[in-house]
Amino acid sequence: MVEREVKEIKKKRKRSGFWRYFFLTFKEGKYILYKYLVTAVLFSIVTILSNLLGVQELTYLNAFLAINAFSSLISFGISSGINVLLNQNIGSKYKVRKFAKIGFELNLIVAGIFLIVLVAFPRFIMETITGFVPDSYEFYYVMCFYFLLCSMAYYFQATLRELKIFKAGFYCEILPILVTIVGMLVLYLTGGMHLLAIAIVYLCSGFVSAGMGYYNLLKNHIIAIDFKKVEPIRLSRKQYGIIFSNLAIEFLWQVGCFVTSVLLLRVSDAFFNTYSYLETVLDIFNGVLFAFLCITCIRITRSLGRNQFSKAYMHAKYSIIACIVIWAFYMIASLILIYPIALGVNDAYFDVMFVAVPCYAFIHLFRFLSWNFSSYILRLGGKSRAMLVMEIFGLIMNIVLLLIIDFIPSNMFLIYFLIALPDIITLPIAFIIFKRKKWMANINDDPSMLKNKVKCIIFDFDDTLYYDVDWSFWQKICENFFEEHFSYLSKEKRKELRKKYEKLGSLSDTLGRMCYELEGSPEPWLKYRDSLPMQPEEREGKAVSMKELGKCKEQGNLYIVSNSRLVDIKRTSKFYGIDLDLFKKVFTNEYTEQVGTKEDIYLKIMQEEGLCADEILVVGNNYKSDLKPAKNLKMNYCKVKDGFTFEEIMG
Q: Among the CATH numbers 3.40.30.10, 3.30.70.20, 3.40.50.720, 3.40.50.1000, which is that of 449-469+542-651?
């Protein structure tokens, strides 16, 4: 009796837990829902205004807007992959900024390639692909740049959404549409409703959309793009795989949708018109599902990033139940709404709708579950291969169906069943993969990631372990010593001497070696240096947090390799509170050799540790003296400025 009561209580808690989760998720994603509601209305207004054009001009506009759909495909595909990396590392601001910036750069590269193709082959694209021969290509070229702006804007909006900056994302999507409406109204009222003017209106809305998206990311310290400084995109092979497999999945899905539309058009006009009509009218329910899954998937990826696998599984399980609940609501609403709307628009649809609505609802049951399992959950752990294979399989099935459609009876139940067949077949496979829980693999366990390879870290000292020091005073001291002490040399000889040692480092690093070479001892420089007190400017610096160095220590042994002397390092470390006990050994320049570089010391450490070059990370502020020797030995290296965190050097 007691056991039964306990079971009942557990069941009630389980149910109440789901419903609480269900409604809280929608509350959190309210701005995503608002977006779907408002954009549906605003796009309807844009469509009405567009219809004021002539038949040929309207065809031209619609043809290019259809091509422009590829900009959203590119952005959504790349952002889907980037957001896996971004959300699993949400605790590290540095990695969030890094992945958001890399996503933008990749998006810009892919969109730029598409733009080049569009600009290079206008006649082929418009006349061969769309079958439309325009009088002028001015509109076409303006809309090409609108394509590029849209691809940037969609990526910014997706990034805002994944970072839970929903309100800003809502305005970034709504205001550009309002700009389009206002612009087209002005054109209509002033009698300037022609294609080139409309293209300029769209271009203005694109600038607003991209500008607002970038501004909001900049304001939240996510993306600050320096166009003057171009850096290579550094990602592991697995990370590249995650991004481009997501892009491939979106492309295959888009092609599949196109094939389905052509398939229905081949069957009959009635099939195609009812399907298109239902897609348009009931698209809001796809938005409802997307709003729920968007929040759920953010929670899942962040749980995976924190190794909270049971929590991630709970989110995923609730999302499956929610899919069925949303679909049931969709089924009821479609029965209530579709018939009177269809009758009011076109009474010829009325009889067809009795068959079309149940069939369409049947397809959406499998679509909802398939999207949930495949398009979202199976990709969140960074393993997209299963989803990619299923998309390829579904596309092949649709193409085969298109080829044999003339031999299939024109029965609506049968046709809709065949359209849903790829999802019906792949859904059990997706469910099995889901239950096996391999989709919960944490991207942070990728063996190719730097933090999983590095077993030893070598640090420079000055301006690396302590920083933010004004070194101009020290440079003046070095310059004065050089000019005064070597004044017996001619100007040309002094110039030649500096040039010779320039490759070894700064003047302060090489003065001792110069004295050694010319006078047989570094003592003149060392005595002069020891006579100097610690300068006031030097005392105003900051040191790297010992907590961050502690995290570095967990990776493996730490070393210091510096051109400074040990006595100077000990004095500075004591002042700044740098614990030298964290380091296995401190290699310093005691000016006992005439010529030498850090490369010899790095090689010695590599041999002592018994490590491969790619298992060692060198961290410093100077490329020439600190990092170039590491690069020559094929070691990992990271240039730092104004301090660093563990996440930054392991990024």
A: 3.40.50.1000
